[in-house]
UniProtKB/TrEMBL annotation:
Residues 2-54 form the Glyoxalase-related protein domain. This is Glyoxalase-related protein domain-containing protein. It comes from Pseudomonas turukhanskensis. GO terms for biological process: response to antibiotic. CDD domains: BLMA_like. Keywords: Antibiotic resistance.
Length: 176
């Protein structure tokens, strides 16, 4: 659901886009249009119902991002990008000949891969709650990856599919 701030930002973007096409409207008219697009009768109704943006007042955590140790960049790219279907968010090296630290992402799951000695222990396990595990398994099987053919195991807490990277790390995908 949108918040008040998001709705106001939408109105500003709408005004800017319309102005670029020589259609000037007032800020209040843009707010009314955004309110209607969000399913409200008018801006007054929307502003009474939409939540305010609030920052947590106490301790709060965002999603954890596991760091997995890798030893070979080409094998890591083949497994994580080619087989599992992740994309690269960023890559970092202090110098060209130094170890790689890379962030990857797929459908909301973020992982960091590191060649740095002290960053992580090889042989780690990452537990990943997910949806549509059968579709993911079918996608992976369809790639005919030479080093793994993951399958789904029915467990008391849900469907579980494990994959092992070339460095001994295990990713345990689970659909509860």
């Amino acid at each position: 659901m949108s918040t008040i701030t998001q709705a106001k930002t939408m109105a500003k973007l709408l005004r800017t886009a319309l102005a670029a096409q020589q259609h000037d409207i007032s800020h209040s008219a843009a707010l009314e249009l955004v309110a209607q697009q969000l399913g409200f009768k008018d801006w007054n109704t929307a502003s009474a119902v939409l939540p305010e943006d609030t920052a947590p007042t106490g301790i709060a955590f965002d999603k954890a991002i596991p760091i997995l140790r890798i030893f070979d960049e080409a094998k890591a790219r083949e497994f994580y990008l080619g087989f599992l279907g992740f994309t690269v968010e960023f890559e970092h090296r202090f110098e060209a000949s130094l170890p790689l630290y890379m962030g990857i992402e797929r459908a909301g799951l973020k992982l960091h891969l590191s060649e740095h000695h002290g960053d992580a222990s090889p042989g780690s396990t990452v537990y990943v709650p997910m949806h549509n595990i059968e579709a993911y398994r079918d996608e992976l099987i369809g790639k005919q990856y030479g080093y793994g053919r993951p399958d789904i195991e029915e467990l008391p807490w849900g469907k579980n599919m494990q994959v092992y990277d070339p460095f001994g790390n295990r990713i345990r995908f689970n659909q509860g």
